[in-house]
């Protein structure tokens, strides 16, 4: 079978996201070739998911064989010409589940691949909850969340019930454009799906578990009493990329100032970016602070309108992009307590002297709640403790890196010494 080198290389980039090169099962580390005339189908599987890519080649009447993925990569590297001739051996390839006649068929819009690409950065593949490692499809569109931020992209899907796709790494790599179809059915108490877009086909199992009821997280419109609209997102993006990391929160403040907004990193107050912005609604009583990477993703996807509550502590809705982007603001604790006036202190001391009964009065500002002060103090201590733990982890990692580097130097020294001895003996 003959294929163009560039065509095979592009196909392997997609198939390599599913194939398992270290698997003890030969099928799972191989690529199946099935060709008839100029049509060639390349298929890989990891035992759960299966991906097929259709390409143009020269297969004669009919050819079917399998080649290990690693061997194909080596074949491409060693071939100088623009055409590659592939040969392999027959393997007992597992048959894919056939789509039954009663399967649900859903038409996918032409921008479906783009919507998945927008939702992918929100997914956390290390999340303990399996349902959050994928992207949810429902009548309300495409939704992804990692528990801290949520992105909902409207998409007309006539789907009877929501389902959660596993992370679509191969589909994202293919960068598909065009309408397609989604097939859904049940088999042996499992929900199976098949997505077909052009010459790309992806089949697998939907993630088990219930996706969170994310609609309850969206605050009511009446609770969001002010809005910030940024007119120069490119300047903010460039500024955020230059801001050093400040774990664990990476807090970036959006301070409302006369005529616009001041973007200030919470841990680097000397860095400041002032720019024009439109502020509508109530005067914010709490500073709006967001995670640097969340804010960066919002701006990069075109979300420039931020609707929030003046007191904070409820999710912020970002608009202006392809959907709704929700994120929980970071509660910024005051770094410095306001200084008390001397005259007030003298009056308090005089009252204490003249009236001993008042010596049990709480030592805090009038109108403040001692419980709130205690909570703020505990939060500050907790943040400092987390920062110290992060620093200790970083130090341990650096110590291990130094130890590994030292062992490598010792091994290099021993090898060099042995080489010198062998040279001496040869002489």
Structure description:
With 427 residues, the chain is an alpha+beta fold. The chain is built from 8 helices and 22 strands. The chain folds into 4 domains: 84 residues, DNA Polymerase III, Chain A, domain 2; 111 residues, Roll (DNA Polymerase III, Chain A, domain 2), CATH 3.10.150.10; 110 residues, DNA Polymerase III, subunit A, domain 2 (DNA Polymerase III, Chain A, domain 2); 41 residues. The strands form 2 sheets. A 12-stranded antiparallel β-sheet has the order 11-8-9-10-22-21-20-15-18-17-16-19. Strands 1, 2, 3, 4, 5, 6, 7, 12, 13 and 14 form a 10-stranded antiparallel β-sheet that branches. A hairpin with a 2-residue loop joins β13 and β14. α1 packs antiparallel against α2 and α5 packs antiparallel against α6. About 7% of the residues have low confidence.
Question: What key attributes describe this structure?
Answer:
alpha+beta; 4 domains; 427 residues; twelve-stranded antiparallel beta sheet; 22 strands; DNA Polymerase III, Chain A, domain 2; 8 helices; ten-stranded antiparallel beta sheet; 29% helix
């Amino acid at each position: 079978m003959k294929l163009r080198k560039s065509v095979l290389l592009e196909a392997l980039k997609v198939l390599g996201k599913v194939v398992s090169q270290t698997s003890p099962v030969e099928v799972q580390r191989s690529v199946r070739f099935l060709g008839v005339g100029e049509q060639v189908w390349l298929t890989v599987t990891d035992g759960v998911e299966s991906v097929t890519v259709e390409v143009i080649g020269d297969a004669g009447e009919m050819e079917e064989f399998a080649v290990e993925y690693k061997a194909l990569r080596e074949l491409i590297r060693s071939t100088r010409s623009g055409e590659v001739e592939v040969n392999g051996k027959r393997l007992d390839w597992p048959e894919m589940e056939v789509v039954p006649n009663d399967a649900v068929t859903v038409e996918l819009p032409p921008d479906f691949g783009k919507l998945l690409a927008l939702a992918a950065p929100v997914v956390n593949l290390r999340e303990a909850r399996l349902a959050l490692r994928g992207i949810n499809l429902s009548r309300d569109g495409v939704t992804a969340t990692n528990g801290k931020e949520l992105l909902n992209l409207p998409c007309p899907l006539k789907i009877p019930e929501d389902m959660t796709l596993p992370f679509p790494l191969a589909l994202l790599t293919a960068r598909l454009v065009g309408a397609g179809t989604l097939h859904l059915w049940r088999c042996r108490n499992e929900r199976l799906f098949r997505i077909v877009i052009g010459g790309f086909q992806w089949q697998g199992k939907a993630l088990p578990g219930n996706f969170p009821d994310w609609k309850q997280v969206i605050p009511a419109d009446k609770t969001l009493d002010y809005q910030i609209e940024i007119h120069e997102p490119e300047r903010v993006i460039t500024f955020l990329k230059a801001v050093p990391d400040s774990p664990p929160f990476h807090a970036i403040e959006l301070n409302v100032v006369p005529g616009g907004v001041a973007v200030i990193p919470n841990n680097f107050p000397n860095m400041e970016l002032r720019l024009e912005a439109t502020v509508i609604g109530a005067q914010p009583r709490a500073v709006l602070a967001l995670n640097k990477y969340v804010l960066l993703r919002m701006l990069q996807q075109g979300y420039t309108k931020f609707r929030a509550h003046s007191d904070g502590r409820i999710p912020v809705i970002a608009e202006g992009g392809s959907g709704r982007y929700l994120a929980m603001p970071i509660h910024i604790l005051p770094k410095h307590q306001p200084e008390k006036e001397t005259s007030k202190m003298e009056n308090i001391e005089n009252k204490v002297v003249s009236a001993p009964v008042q010596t049990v009065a709480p030592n805090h500002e009038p109108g403040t709640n001692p419980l709130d002060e205690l909570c703020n103090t505990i939060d500050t201590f907790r943040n400092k403790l987390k920062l110290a733990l992060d620093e200790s982890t970083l130090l341990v990692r650096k110590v291990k890196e130094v130890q590994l580097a030292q062992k490598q130097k010792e091994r290099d020294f021993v090898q060099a010494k042995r080489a010198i001895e062998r040279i001496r003996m040869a002489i």
